[in-house]
């Protein structure tokens, strides 16, 4: 079952209506990313995405589909052997200027990253530096990007940031190992918020956390989004979760975006067979016993047995 | 009556400055052809229960009984228990040896537990692979772990657990490391074995939805205690304990799409 999508991702008429009048903040056009190994891996193929101001765009797909690679491409974080083969990424700054992200070099790139587009990484449980305090790590962001800030101002902002993400500012002098998984993740979000970015890219930010903790953090992200109007690209394989938090969802498979639509349309009338397959992969919690999210398939081979591939990673 | 029973199981771990009660008085009876799910979050004690049953941890107090007889601490009787009660681990990438073929992984338990030897090994290995739907068996027998997907590896792990002639399987988060589109296939395999081969399955998970669909009974654990138990549908559709309700409210439910956003907006509007 190799759905060819040379015509671009599927989407509905509702989706077109939804897009009316929205202001883009990040546009990616025809992105292709290869891993230059032998043989080369075409990790992302002709992917185009438009992220709008203040919107939560879910990027769904399974391991190896290219979702993280695409996100790294948007933020210019690819490193060899990954290479951006083609495509344009444009950031539409709130002040009206357009930034060609692909052309940014050195200082301009450093100034852009984190300030305009920040990121919460996969495995953020382990992305804090274990040997320096939370305060020092938050200060680092500000000394790099806001050198004019005084120490007192940085302290004040650090405390404010922790309070924003629901962590007691008394924890500023803690080290990563002294924090629970949920608190570490909240600190990572505080760091991503530090410079008031217009876009946050979140790569599986809650995957390793318990559901109750995960819920608290999602709620926090939603609340901060309402307050600060940043846009979010939220990457995860957890489609039920994306359906709950996203305005729109893009479904990726084998490097291609196969379908993009509003969360509601994805749930009620997914068009691409792979999207439907992903939906059937999650049993419904409260639906009829034995029925699965949409189509009620429950044969043993599973919806994807035919495509179970030797992902040797 | 054939059964695997745990009675008043308690496990304390020594921690700095005292002890931590990881499991506090857990009792249940698993019968052949039935599945019991133990659900809870990290630290609830659910994996410790599994590890005690698999004899990987020694209970601080309480009893484990197979067919009514307490499990021996050592010797032949313990080996007999191990033939019949086997474990499937969470991470199929870590639980198979990367240097060995699938055949090797299955031959060892067959030999160690005295199920087959010599010329009988090959057909026994193939039989196991067929039971877990890895066919053609001779192709899979020759593969090494890196040549297979996570779902296929977990099927090998299940075959390995069946090899000694297990009647009870303890599956500790058997699908949480797998891609979503292959999870149901593995769970359906366990369900078929339970149904057709009369296997008793203890399904340890944090996922309430699959617990409901794949088990007859659900036991909810919180910080070592059983806070709620009952038939799966009753626990999920009509939860009694506050913790079960919290867990259920936190689980994503696609039909409630947009709900979280609306709640947050309402809260902010109310606060503003």
TrEMBL record, chain A:
It comes from the Bacteria. Residues 289-313 are annotated as: Disordered. Keywords: ATP-binding, Cell inner membrane, Cell membrane, Membrane, Nucleotide-binding, Translocase, Transport. Residues 26-279 form the ABC transporter domain. InterPro entries: AAA+_ATPase, ABC_Ni/Peptide_Import, ABC_transporter-like_ATP-bd, ABC_transporter-like_CS, P-loop_NTPase. The keyword ATP-binding applies. GO terms for molecular function: ATP binding. It is a peripheral membrane protein. It is found in: Cell membrane. PROSITE patterns: ABC_TRANSPORTER_1 (PS00211), ABC_TRANSPORTER_2 (PS50893). The keyword Translocase applies. Gene3D superfamilies: P-loop containing nucleotide triphosphate hydrolases. Pfam families: ABC_tran. Belongs to the ABC transporter superfamily. This is ABC transporter ATP-binding protein.
From TrEMBL, chain B:
Keywords: ATP-binding, Nucleotide-binding, Transport. One of its GO terms (molecular function) is ATP binding. Residues 4-248 form the ABC transporter domain. SUPFAM superfamilies: P-loop containing nucleoside triphosphate hydrolases. Signal peptide: none annotated. InterPro entries: AAA+_ATPase, ABC_transp_ATP-bind, ABC_transporter-like_ATP-bd, ABC_transporter-like_CS, P-loop_NTPase. It comes from Isoptericola luteus. This is ATP-binding cassette domain-containing protein. It holds the Pfam family ABC_tran.
